[in-house]
Amino acid sequence: MAQLELIQVSKDFGKNSIIHGLDLTVEAGEFLVVVGPSGCGKSTLLRIVAGLEPVSKGDVRIDGRSVTKLSPKARGIAMVFQNYALYPHMSVRENISFGLKLAKIPDDEVSRRVTDAAKLLHIGALLDRKPYQLSGGQKQRVAMGRAMVRQPAIFLFDEPLSNLDAQLRVQMRAEIASLHRRLRSTIVYVTHDQTEAMTLADRIVVMRAGKVEQIAAPMELYRNPATKFVASFIGSPAMNFLPVSVFPAGTGMHRTETIGFRPEHSEFIPASGSSRLPPVVSGEDDAIIVGTGAVKLVEPLGSVTLVHCELAPTLNVICEYHGPNIPVPGDEGFLKIDISQLLFFDGEGLRVRK
Amino acid sequence: MSENSADSATRSAWLFLAPALFLMFIFTVAPALFSLILSFHDFKPFSFAMVPVGLDQYMELAASEDYRASLMATLQFAALVVPGSVIGSLAVAVLLDQTPFFRSIFRTIFLIPVGISPAMAAMLWVFLFNPTSGFLNYLLSMVGIVGPAWLSDPDWAPLAVSLTTVWKEVGFNIIFLMAALAQVPVELQEAAWMDGANALRRFWHITLPSISPAMFFVTVVSVIHAFESFGQIHILTRGGPAGSTGVLVYQLFRDGFENSRLGMAAAEAVILFIIIGAVTLVQFFVARYLKGAPQ
Ligand SMILES: Nc1ncnc2c1ncn2[C@@H]1O[C@H](COP(=O)(O)OP(=O)(O)OP(=O)(O)O)[C@@H](O)[C@H]1O
Ligand SMILES: [Mg+2]
Predict the structure, then answer these.
(1) Total of domains in chain A
(2) Distance CA B168, CA B166 (A)
(3) Which atom, in ligand 1's list, is nearest to the CA of A47?
(4) A224-A229-A235 Cα angle (round to 5)
(5) How far does B213 lie from chain A, in Å, by closest CA?
(6) Which protein residue's CA is at the shortest distance from atom 25 of ligand 1?
């Protein structure tokens, strides 16, 4: 377990600047999850840390020591690749012990470590198989075993579960979490999966176009996004945004151009009978009623029903519905929003705070 | 119903294949069978008479010192040419694989010798090998070495002939090896790099096993080509000096077309066929064993 620092790291591929002056500190033993849209440079970032890709500018430090010029093997880092990258001509045992053999670790120590890792990952029975004889989940475990036995200071994962089916993903997610609890190693983990990010991370980094948009603990990021981008990226279904007219000057809110609210902080209220008037909100000072909308799509998820509403052409929101009679597309209704949960953003997408 | 349509599909497949099969029978299978029959006969070229002699010609070959020497010359030739062209092409392919910029231009350059006829290629090398005015010895003289009489010294002629053959064949192998190298997943190399393998180790533990099917193919083809080489030997040395390059095919040519013993030549062809078949089979077994064995 080690602390990892990136200081003003930049990366260009030819004329394309992919990462621009990125600063990041991963504390020793921390589980840091990196999320961001496709092509924002997550894999490039991992490869820079691994030493597979040289930086164009900046410094990578492990426990305060610069490793920028060191080769991957000298950095004490292990990486688990998205498509496993198991050596196809070697058995599982040889795959796992390859790095140890190269490091000239004595045979009995090698076999002890392989046995330990195999036990931890439940692959003891597979040690003599070749990779083509394994299922996706088993390959993933072997890839993790190969990383583990080297006892690296830092683990890097690049979308390790994205090739697995949903059920296996849930299971492996739990296992990675328990592995981290046990090994207490520093982990940098790239994923596209919201749930993975929220459940695994000590902190989440949201990247956008080669920059860090925000770093925070999962719930903090969820409740308190610093920008509209983060607000829209974290949470599923995504946050709703409505354009608003200018707030009065002097309130501190006059820069606000967009308000945002999450589906769970809004409720669909069906128009009762022929009434096109909004119901009176009484005794609920912190709720407002916003215009009328037509139901476009209904998603009953069991515990809650999601209603997609069209407030105006091209202005759609998703809100929850808790009542007994589930609406159908075409129904009209009102949108009730919890004011205390409203977020305000300016024209640049930055949060405006009261 | 489906059986029927499968049947008719098979039938029309045979129909489409028939012309090709017919030509193949006329030009490949029939002559081969005829050679086999011929090898048990003494063929008189002027009277076109075929006198059955049973295994006599095979016995004569088995007892012949010349034939044994020819076999040795062939093995020596193959021992020089096969490693030369396989390892040489592997080295070039790996180098080109690392330098994308030069890749296609050099691939083309190395492919040129494959395209020209063995006779043309050999003529070129006759000039290069010339002991007094040849370019090779000129180069050697620049570093203070007096070059050998490449083609007339029995110690050097096998090497000269092999060199020409390797030069002519590497391009073919390079194509296949480069294609195989391009298929090796980059991630495997990177994973091995992270596991602490340096470039040499990565080549040995990752690249080589990954391209082993192509290596196998290239080796088998090189072995077959080595046993079948004729044109360049005919032009460069005519099997000489002192029989040092008188490989089996050259011996066959001489018996058949200079000594007019077509029956004998046919027997030699059959033996050559058996040798090549046996060597190829052994290679297949070795490859299967290596694949099955724990690394
Ligand atoms: N070797 C390379 N040469 C040139 N451009 C590259 C190279 N590797 C990556 N890029 C570019 O850098 C950008 C970031 O790529 P990267 O793989 O880091 O994205 P990512 O965030 O991992 O995306 P994804 O979520 O799709 O995996 C992309 O625009 C990509 O085209
Ligand atoms: Mg990626």
Answers:
(1) 2
(2) 5
(3) 18
(4) 60
(5) 12
(6) A38
Mutate to test the interface with A, among B187, B195, B210, B288 (most CBs of A within 10 A): B195
- Phi, psi angles (nearest 5°) of residue B266: -65, -40
The tens digit of pLDDT for each residue in B186-228 reads: 999 999 999 999 999 999 999 999 998 899 999 999 999 999 8
**What are the domain boundaries of chain B?**
4-38, 55-292
ipTM of this complex prediction, to 2 decimal places: 0.82
Read off the amino acid at residue A306: L
Q: Which of A177, A209, A232 marks a domain boundary? A: A232
Amino acid at B130: N
Same-domain pairing of A220 and A324: no
Give the whole-angstrom CA distance, residue B7 versus residue B177: 40
Question: What CATH number corresponds to the domain at position A110?
Answer: 3.40.50.300
The range of the structural domain enclosing residue A346 comes to 240-352
Residue with tokens 């860090």: A212
Locus of tokens 């296609």: B104
Residue nearest to atom 29 of ligand 1 (CA): A39
Match 């039938």 to its residue by tokens: B11
Of B152, B294, B51, B43, the closest CA to residue A127 belongs to B294
Considering the entire predicted model, what is its pTM? 0.79
- pLDDT digits over B67-81, tens only? 898 899 899 999 999
For residues B85 and B166, the answer to whether their CB atoms sit within 8 Å is: yes
Top-tier CATH class for B55-292: mainly alpha
Residue with tokens 């354009």: A243
CB contact at 8 A, B112 and B175 = no
Residue with tokens 């006599």: B56
